[in-house]
């Protein structure tokens, strides 16, 4: 190899390529943890959505995660089979079903998040803490703009 490096410089000039490839590296690190717990990434994402927002209708979980509603049903079925989520009637509107974490699911999600954060710390170790915070801020800004356009709802950052 010469001084040009491993990857084509033209690709390195595309932020979408960089973001996508760095995302792939992070997902590879995280997938080991998820595989150890027999989880797919969308199942993990659903657990986190329910942890962060509490019980909600299935369609809202799908909307918040930008997942196909019919695919989400399968993910929730698997999580329900593992005892991590439960479906129940909405007391305010008996026609509607909600999905929420079980007590077992709450504990599991907290433990899993500790492991997930560790994978992120390891793969981003080449960056300082300040650089990691800047990267997270910039990526979040792009994602929020996309979500605002996708949903038509104004951005509501988490506290």
TrEMBL record:
Q: Which segments constitute the HTH marR-type domain? A: 1-144
Q: Which SMART domains does the record match to this protein?
A: HTH_MARR
Report the transmembrane regions from the record.
none
Q: Which InterPro entries match?
A: HTH_MarR-typ (IPR000835), MarR/SlyA-like (IPR039422), WH-like_DNA-bd_sf (IPR036388), WH_DNA-bd_sf (IPR036390)
Q: What name is this protein filed under?
A: MarR family winged helix-turn-helix transcriptional regulator
This protein's species is Tenggerimyces flavus
